[in-house]
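Example 3.2
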Amino acid sequence: MKDVCNHCIGQPWRHGATGYSLRFCKGCKNFHHIHAFERADDEKKQKEDFYPLTTAKCAKARLKGYETRGTKKKKAKQEPAGAGAKKAKKK
């Protein structure tokens, strides 16, 4: 598993050979070009004070998170009360 210390997560990194500015995405667990952290065109939840250098996830990871949370909410609404309870195992 790729991981970076908490101090280094929000910092831009400079790739020496290419000169690219990179950041670590906590969603993808990978380094991306700094422009990948900007707003995506299809992001619905956009804050006016959005600043790409303060977000922990790239645009692709944020969109994936929105979709995942949306499907979980839909499933929770569809389940009847008590349906989510675990059944006892039979021996």
